[in-house]
Amino acid sequence: MSDDRFDLTGFGADEDFDSFLDSIRRDLGEPERPRRAPSAGTVVIDAETKPAEPEPEQPIQTAEAVRQPERVRRPEQVQEPEPVPVRRPRERIKPAEPETKPRRRAEQEPVRRQPVRPKAEPEESRLPVRQTEKKPQKRREPEIRWEPPAEEDEEKHGLSGFGKAMLVYCIVLIIAVAAALAVFWKYLEAYEFTRPERVMEQFEQMADEKYWQTAIDSAFTVTPTEFETKSALENELCLDLIRNGGMSYVADEAYTDAAPVYLVSVGGTELCRVYLSPQLGGEAGFGLEYKSIDKVELLADFINPEPRTLSITAPADATVTVNGITVSESYISSEAPDASCLPELEQNAAELLRRYDIPGIYGTVEIGASSADGEVLTAESSDENGAVFALAEGTLSYTVYAPEGAVVSINGVELDESYLTGETVTASFLAGLESYGTAPELVAWQVDGLHLEPEVTVTAADGSELGAPYAQDGVTACLPASDAELEAAQKEYSEGFFKLYAAFESNLNDKIDTNYYNMINYLYGTLPLTSRLGSEYIARTPAGGVTDTGYDSYELTNFVYYGENCYGCNVSLYEDGEQTGGCIIIFTRINAKWYPAEVVEYSF
Question: Where does the chain cross the membrane (predicted)?
Answer without folding.
Answer: 166-188
